[in-house]
Write a structure and sequence with these properties.
Elements (H helix, E strand, L loop, with lengths): L4 E10 L4 E3 H5 L6 H8 L3 E3 L7 H16 L8 E5 L10 H9 L6 E4 L5 H14 L5 E9 L9 H4 L4 E11 L2 E11 L7 E2 L11 H5 L6 E2 L1 H22 L9 E4 L4 H10 L11 H4 L6 H12 L7 E8 L3 E12 L1 H9 L2 H9 L5
Parallel strand pairs: 4-5, 4-6, 11-12
Antiparallel strand pairs: 1-7, 2-3, 6-7, 8-13, 9-10, 12-13
Helix pairs in contact: 3-4, 8-9
The structure holds coenzyme A.
Length: about 350
């Protein structure tokens, strides 16, 4: 069997209608629009309405992605939902999504890895395609963090938003999709982003509830240091695996947590900020949804083109990190090889012959 790649044939994003601005938060916690913008770059976040759930947001994003892909839900071979904020502790929200989409009997699972979840899920989907097991896979990144945030804690409540993003991958023999990736984990930093009493180690009881130990708590400074240290390193590893360099990348899509972290990554990679897609001002940190939502927004605004080669890079709780080189539209092996080594003239000749790179 020829090598199989997972082409992104559909994408979709859903953000709740309700927008909460920094000015709104000024009225409820001791903070200011200026402080939030200066420290994070965030101007607003979308917050789910009471009737919305992780599953309903996931399904909205998935329906758009399936529509673009011109695929029925029943054509799917697998559904992966990257999330840490599913509707219930059990069952996994992926089964609800499968049922609501009408993807009868399609296998579905949750991949729970915080902000890196979507890239872990995307690279997992790629393995099912590379091995020839599945043809069509739906990958969703969805979070409803507003229900896990302590709205009286200014250290965390200003940072997060709700959203869902989805990709449909389809097997193809043409070189595209995930060309290289790097995943990593360092559990010694697990205390830095944690909801203490939301798991089996510390079951929720009256005391933990009163102390708010089921809410997300964060050591912002430590997370900041970790993120600025890891983003350049993991990006380089994914590029090396893809046998590419930063010069071969059209756009870098980092996890949208904090503008200062993206600026620090740009400095450490010696790149101007124009190379990075920034959407954190609109959506805040939507964890596993942040990268697919940013890509959908970038595609809609024209900042990302359909044949772009992207570098996706993320960090988050665990602590974990992930990066992937993602070729949106297929490139021929020939054009791929030429693009890596070509002079501008040869590259121009290749593209004028209908090959994109
Ligand atoms: N408004 C006003 N003041 C605030 C505030 C807010 N929303 N949040 C925190 N502060 C205060 C702190 O209480 C602290 O006050 P103190 O010195 O009196 O104790 C002061 O601001 C400085 O806090 P510090 O933690 O040093 O600020 P910072 O420059 O590190 O910025 C973060 C804080 C959270 C914005 C920053 O550390 C960060 O973004 N970290 C990464 C977080 C992240 O990305 N998490 C998600 C990972 S997936």
């Amino acid at each position: 069997m020829q090598k199989q790649y997972g082409r992104i044939i559909g994408w979709g994003a859903y953000v709740p209608e309700k927008i909460v601005t920094n000015y709104d938060l000024e009225k409820t916690v001791d903070t200011s629009h200026e402080w939030i913008v200066q420290r994070t770059g965030i101007h607003q976040r979308h917050i789910a309405a009471p009737h919305e759930t992780n599953a309903t947001m996931s399904v909205e994003a998935a329906r758009q992605a399936l529509h673009k892909a011109n695929l029925a839900a029943a054509d799917l071979d697998l559904i992966i939902v990257a999330t840490t904020t599913g509707d219930h502790l059990t069952p996994a929200v992926s089964s609800q999504v499968q049922h609501m989409l009408g993807a009868t009997d399609v296998p579905a699972f949750v991949l729970s890895n915080g902000c890196t979840g979507f890239l872990y899920a995307l690279t997992t989907a790629q393995q099912f395609i590379s091995s020839g097991v599945y043809q069509n896979i739906l990958v969703i990144g969805a979070e409803l963090l507003s229900r896990y945030v302590d709205w009286t804690d200014r250290n965390t409540c200003v940072l997060f938003g709700d959203a869902a993003g989805a990709f449909v991958l389809q097997a193809t023999e043409e070189a595209c999709g995930v060309l290289g990736f790097d995943l990593g984990s360092d559990g010694s930093g697990s205390q830095h982003i944690i909801a203490h009493a939301a798991g089996s180690a510390e079951p929720i009881n009256a005391t933990t509830f009163d102390e708010g130990r089921h809410f997300i708590r964060m050591n912002g400074r430590e997370v900041f240091k970790f993120a600025t240290r890891i983003l350049g390193t993991t990006s380089q590893r994914a590029l090396t695996q893809a046998q590419l360099s930063l010069n071969d990348i059209d756009c870098i899509v980092p996890h949208q947590a904090n503008l200062r972290i993206i600026q620090a990554a740009a400095r450490s990679m010696n790149l101007p900020m124009e190379r990075f897609l920034v959407k954190v001002h609109k959506y805040a940190n939507t964890s596993a949804a942040s990268i697919p939502v940013a890509i959908c927004d970038g595609l809609a605004s024209g900042e990302i083109k359909l044949d772009d080669r992207l570098l996706l890079v993320s960090f988050g709780s665990g602590l974990t990190w992930a990066s992937a080189v993602l070729q949106m539209a297929p490139i021929t092996e020939f054009a791929y090889a030429v693009a890596k080594t070509a002079s501008p003239e040869v590259a121009e000749l290749v593209s004028s012959n209908g090959f994109t790179h």
